[in-house]
Amino acid sequence: MSTHFTHEFDTPAYKGKVSFPTGLFIDGKFVDGSDKTTIDVINPTNGKVITKIAEATAKDVDIAVEAAQRAFDTTWGLNASGATRSRLMTKLWEFMERDQKILAALEALDNGKTFQWALDVDIAFSTDTIRYYSGWADKIHGQVMETDDKKLTYSRHEPIGVVGQIIPWNFPLLMWTWKIGPALATGNTVVLKPSEFTPLTAIYMCSLIQEAGFPPGVVNIVTGYGHTVGNAISSHMKIEKVAFTGSTLVGRKIMENAAKSNLKNVTLELGGKSPNIIFNDADLEQAVNWSLHGIFWNHGQACCAGSRIFVQSGIYDKFLAKFTEKTKGLKVGDPFATDSYQGPQVSQQQYDRIMSYIDSGKEEGATVHVGGERVGNEGYFIQPTIFTNTEPHMKIVQEEIFGPVGVVIKFEDEDDVVHQANDTMYGLASAVFSQDINKALTVAHRLRAGTAWVNCANTLNASVPFGGYKQSGIGRELGEYALHNYTSVKAVHVNLGIKM
Ligand code: NDP
C-alpha cells in the first residue's frame, strides 16, 4: 500500500498536479501498516473517497518508537548540535514556503477550509512556526547558579527522548508544526498521529523531512485511529512525554493512560467556550467584524472560537442588526471557489454533532436568529448560525459546539458579564471590546482564560504562548514556553575543592 497519491487540481483558486508517496513514515521510509489495512480519506464537500491511506496499529507504534529511540541515541538528541538541528529545520520551512500552494490545496481538499484561508493563514503560520523554532534550536541552555566559591553549579535543559504527539483535524498542518517545532528544536524524536480525517498534509510533510535530510527516525508519522494508535502512544512505556490537542473527553483518557503506564509527562490543549465581551463604548464596526472572525473563522472549528458573544444593553440592538447583516453575507460554498468564506464542516460526524446542538438550542427555547440549516444536499455544509434569547444553563451556552454557531447574550454591567464569562468549565481564550483601555485591561485580567484579546479576536503568533486554564488544558504551546514541555532540567554540582 505504500504508494503514491496523485491529484489534479483544476479549480478557480488553484490549478496544478500533486503527486507524493504515502504510507506510514517510519525510520525515514514510507511503509505499509503491519496489518496492511487502509483508511478512507473523505472529501467533506461531497462525502466521496479522496484516497486510501495506510492504517497503523499498536504494533506499528512499537516499530516507530524503536526507530525514534535509535535516532535519539545516535543521530539526534545529544548527538546533534543545536546548529545542526537549526539548519535542518530551516531547510524544512524553506521547502514549506516553496510548496505553500500544494500544502494549501491539500488542506482545502481534505479539511474543507477555503484554499485562500489555508494559504494565507494555516500554511503561512505553520511555516512561521517551524521558522520560529529553527531559531531556538541553538539557543537552548540552562543557567549557572551562584552557590559557593568552591562549587560550580549549573543546569542543563536536555531533550526528554521519544515524544508522542496526537493532533486533531481542525488545523492539520498547523497543529503538526506546533507540536513538532519545539520538539525538534530541543532535540527530541517524535512519533506523531494525525487525525485520520485529515492526514494528507502530515504525509506530504514526510517527503519534505526526507528532502531536508533529517536523519531517519527523528520524525515518524503513524496514521491510524485514536482508540488503537492514540491509545498505544499515550500508554507506551518508552514514550516519556505525550502532547495532545483535541476534546476534553479524550484529554482525560490520555492523562489516565499516562498515569497507568509510565507516568509520562502530559500536555493537553483541549476545548473552549470563549467569551467575547462588547461594551457600550466599543468601536461598533470593529467589534462586529472581529466577532464574526471570532466565531466563524475556520467554520467555527477552533478551540478558541468566540462562541459566547456578550453585548452590553446600550448597543445590543445596533450590534445585533449589523452582526446579523454581515453573518447573512458570509458565502458558504466550495473551498476552491474564490468567493467562498466558509466551506463544509470536516466530517459527517461533526456535521451531525453540530446539527444536534442546533436542535437542542431550539428544543430548550432559544431563538434561531440567523441560519440553523444545512446548505445544499451533499457534503457537510451548515449555515453560519446565531442564537438569541438563551439562558445560562442551555447546552448551546455551556458546551463546545465546534461549528459555525454562536450565541449573542445581552448584559448590563461589568461584574455581571465577568461572572457569566467565567461560568464555564473551560478557560481557553477571551476577548474584550472597549475604547476605555483601563476597563478593557481590568476585565481582561479578571477573565479566567489563557488568552485575552483586547479589541481583536483569534489572532495568534508563533512567539506568543497559547493554552488553557481550567479544563481547557495543561501547559502552553508556542513561544519560549513550549520549549519547557520538551526538556528535562538536570542540575550539575561540581566540587571545586570542598573537602569532606
Ligand atoms: P477527539 O478528541 O476525539 O480527537 C482528537 C484526536 O485524538 C484524534 O487524532 C483522535 O483520533 C485522537 N483520539 C481519539 N480517541 C483517542 C484515545 N482513546 N487515545 C488517544 N487518542 C485518541 O476529537 P473529535 O475529532 O472526536 O472531535 C470531537 C470534539 O472534540 C469536537 O467537536 C470539539 O469539540 C473537540 N475538538 C477540539 C479540538 C481542539 O482544537 N481543542 C480539536 C478537535 C476536536 P480519532 O480521530 O481516530 O478518534
TrEMBL record:
It holds the Pfam family Aldedh. InterPro entries: Ald_DH/histidinol_DH, Ald_DH_C, Ald_DH_CS_CYS, Ald_DH_CS_GLU, Ald_DH_N, Aldehyde_DH_dom. GO terms for biological process: acetate biosynthetic process. Residues 30-492 form the Aldehyde dehydrogenase domain. The active site is at E269. GO terms for molecular function: aldehyde dehydrogenase [NAD(P)+] activity. Keywords: Oxidoreductase. The keyword Oxidoreductase applies. Belongs to the aldehyde dehydrogenase family. This is Aldehyde dehydrogenase.
